Amino acid sequence: MGFVSLGCPKALVDSERILTRLKGEGYDTSASYAGADVIVVNTCGFLDSAKEESLNAIGEALAENGKVIVTGCMGGDEAMIRARFPNVAAVTGAHQYDAVMDAVHNIVPPKPDPFKSLVPDEGVRLTPKHYAYLKISEGCDHRCSFCIIPTLRGDLASRPVAEVLREAETLAKAGVKELLVVSQDTSAYGLDIRYAQSEWRGQNWAASFEDLSRGLGELGIWVRMHYVYPYPHVSGVLPLMAEGKILPYLDIPFQHASPKILKAMKRPGNQDKTLQRIESWREICPDLTLRSTFVVGFPGETEADFNLLLDWMEAAQIDRVGAFAYENVEGAPAKLLPDHVPEEVKQDRLARFMAVASRISAQKLAAKVGRIEDVLVDEIRSDGVAVARTRGDAPEIDGHIYLKGFTGLKAGDYAKARVTRADAYDLWGEPEGLIKLNRVPGAARRPMHRLISRV
């Protein structure tokens, strides 16, 4: 079978879970359309541009193979999918694993006696061997006016904390060096199940953001928190970051700073209080790295609103920033708002915003020159340069540190590096000796399967 996985890390985890179940039944993966008996396309439906990419992937799979199962966020609108592609074999919604399995079985029946030993304890993963995404919940209780995630994935549904911690422990034992905690709203974890307790390692743990962070901190590997809302209780994990239990890194989608625009977005949070909260976080953990995403050109955004956002950025000094110009999303209330911003104005504001963000990033990285940083190696280039990341850099979305003069390093190694140079987004460094973190015993690793190259 072939697998095309599109969209966010949460969708990637869905793909990994489906592949794990298929592997457990004896199915193998193909690196080409021609070599597969069926193709599964896990779609993304967050933005119109993402929908178009998903539709193109479905069309390509149909043209190259002919037997296609569509799942993921766009699968919730089966009528639309079948109107454009009437020949797809099956259409299922997001995280509907059983429905995907049934559809695969209908096209390619499973072997009577699958070799379950082919599936490693940590399951099938699509990330490199040394890091993994850890999804702690599905869905979201917020109703942001520009977002249709609750329509696609439902309300918040948290996993039991012991189940999450056991999965994390299994990944650590398999050699994973970094866990990236993901959900739609990580800091709301456990709210829907009233922070129910469950047992792990002979101790009761609450299904709460703080207890989960504390448990993950016992594994002795890097733990990085993504998609965190700036609720007051987030302050409870900052001491864990200051102690080195989890990485001093918070990915918080602030989205904007203008009170008028935040209200139109139906986003929580008072930005003046958020600035105070950021200041208090940095007092507790001076090495804290803050990443965020922002939307410019939201309907009704005036030049005054945009300038307020720029002023807020200067005050907040966000370390890592991503931004995009507002796009209409079918089914999102924001599409119906008045006073949409012309495209050329949106693009101008995006460029101006990123110029400020780039300058702040350059200043912050320049301050690291001469410092010794703990890093994790992602790859060794053909010229011998090690491409690594600091504790303040998440894979795929943040920068790198390029290491020369190291010998004997390989992907997944921890190391120490003295920073010698910086630009707006990346660092360069020299060896400062290897380090080993206290971590659970590793296990033999499996070779990774290469899937169709949209993963």
Automatic annotation (TrEMBL):
GO BP field: tRNA modification
GO cellular component terms given for this protein: cytosol
Residues in MTTase N-terminal domain copies: 1-109
Cofactor binding comment, as recorded: Binds 2 [4Fe-4S] clusters. One cluster is coordinated with 3 cysteines and an exchangeable S-adenosyl-L-methionine.
Residues that coordinate or bind [4Fe-4S] cluster 1: 8, 44, 73
GO molecular function: 4 iron, 4 sulfur cluster binding; aspartic acid methylthiotransferase activity; metal ion binding; protein methylthiotransferase activity
EC number per UniProt: 2.8.4.4
Domain Radical SAM core: from-to ranges: 126-363
Pfam families assigned to the protein according to its UniProt record, in alphabetical order: Radical_SAM, TRAM_2, UPF0004
Keyword vocabulary terms for this entry: 4Fe-4S, Cytoplasm, Iron, Iron-sulfur, Metal-binding, S-adenosyl-L-methionine, Transferase
Places the protein is found: Cytoplasm
Catalytic activity annotation: L-aspartate(89)-[ribosomal protein uS12]-hydrogen + (sulfur carrier)-SH + AH2 + 2 S-adenosyl-L-methionine = 3-methylsulfanyl-L-aspartate(89)-[ribosomal protein uS12]-hydrogen + (sulfur carrier)-H + 5'-deoxyadenosine + L-methionine + A + S-adenosyl-L-homocysteine + 2 H(+)
Record's keyword annotation contains Transferase: yes
Superkingdom to which the source organism belongs: Bacteria
InterPro entries: Elp3/MiaA/NifB-like_rSAM, Methylthiotransferase, Methylthiotransferase_CS, Methylthiotransferase_N, Methylthiotransferase_N_sf, NA-bd_OB-fold, Ribosomal_uS12_MeSTrfase_RimO, rSAM
Binding residue positions for [4Fe-4S] cluster 2: 140, 144, 147
Chain ranges of the TRAM domain: 366-433
Cofactors named for this entry: [4Fe-4S] cluster
Keyword Zinc: no
PANTHER family: RIBOSOMAL PROTEIN S12 METHYLTHIOTRANSFERASE RIMO (PTHR43837), RIBOSOMAL PROTEIN US12 METHYLTHIOTRANSFERASE RIMO (PTHR43837:SF1)
Summary of the function given for this chain in its UniProt record: Catalyzes the methylthiolation of an aspartic acid residue of ribosomal protein uS12.
Family membership: Belongs to the methylthiotransferase family. RimO subfamily.
Protein name: Ribosomal protein uS12 methylthiotransferase RimO
Biological classification of the source: Bacteria, Pseudomonadati, Pseudomonadota, Alphaproteobacteria, Caulobacterales
